[in-house]
Specification:
Blueprint lengths: L13 H10 L3 H5 L1 H10 L4 H28 L20 H8 L2 H4 L3 E5 L6 H14 L4 E5 H9 L4 H12 L3 E7 L6 H14 L4 E6 L16 H9 L2 E5 L5 H20 L1
Length: about 270
Amino acid sequence: MTSDMTTTNPTKNPADLAASLTSLGLWRIAEELDDFVARATKARLSVVQILSELARLEVQERARRSCERRLTQSKVGIFKPMANFDWNWPTKIDRTAVERVLSLGFIERAENVVMVSAQGLGKTMIAQNLAHGAVLAGHSALFVTAADLLLDLNKQDSPRALERRLQHYARPHVLCIDEVGYLSYDNHAADLLFQIVNRRYEKRAIVLTTNLAFAQWNTVFPNATCATALIDRLTHHAEILPIEGESYRKREAEQAQKARRRGKNGQS
């Protein structure tokens, strides 16, 4: 007993083949079609080898596109890499602890990282590196200031819209909330932040930076009944990283001023 196999004529136009590959989502091969065919022909690859190489390249390409998309969605912005961090400048910093969280193990454990320091000591820089590292490691991340997060939540005009935004902030594997403590908020804002923290509690990691010790958070959320519960959930299963010293930015400004003065004296 024989079976008939109906075949269609394969396309002889490379442009048509590239278009077909693109429509199938095989972007890498579509872009490199001529080179791919030349390499396969020169190496005399078998059909199985050709398919294996095609699959490898497409997996690689999809991983690259996914990483780029997650980097864009993370809103981490432009930042300095940790290689530029001056460990000798702070008068107090636990380098071992900082490097431990930079290894990203806290993400899988759904633990939090809280950095406490005055302005200009690098806590935002570390948080940005954590978000960026998380994305490169295959996680989703979102970097946002506390002011922007609460402004976003406050402007939602219906319970349904608010719920969607709460889900948006609850979803990423890592949520970085920067600059808690620079502004004061009312009870409603405190409740909104508590909802975010509570939804992520023991499920997703939070990286938070603040210029105030927790004992001073009553100045950020005056009269907020949820402040104690908020701090409790943030610090349970958390790495607390205090950093002390003078501002990097202040030092850089002073150095720049001295350089300008030297330049003027040299010209006079």
